[in-house]
Fold this sequence. Notes:
The protein is mostly beta strands. It contains one helix and 13 strands, in the order H-E-E-E-E-E-E-E-E-E-E-E-E-E.
Amino acid sequence: MSRLFFSTFALSLFVGPLFGQKSHLLVYSQGDGAYAIFGSNQKEAVKKANFIPKNTKISVRPKSGIETISAGFQFRFGAESKFEVGDEGIHLIDGSLMIRSRNVFNKSNIRTPRGLVEISGSGTALIQVEQNGGAKLVGVLGKLAFKCKNSGSTSIYFPDPSSS
């Protein structure tokens, strides 16, 4: 079983960059996990060690959560979150997301109902979609920059606690 996981993981590291797209591999599912919603409201469970289907709405079930990895990032989607994975990043429709970057040169886009944020740097952050469609961004650890693409506002840096 561990060889299958390792093979799938290794393949995801090499195939993703070849096509210029960031695929998300589901590595952990807690509780009832999540399901993909296709065209005519057809639902299908998203299974561990499989890639999240692109441009398809994913809904995390109540009292559940999932974890994905993609090109140097680790993503954890909270209970009752709804999102889509596209070529330009993640569209977080509702709910919460924890993002962890391990490389200072990483960049990822997170679209919310009212905006688009580019996250870059190394560290951990929490993002939650509010009821009015806005988003709450909290830097937890490391040094990350959040850049609002809609307003063009300057990057906000969260300093590394170990550097003080």
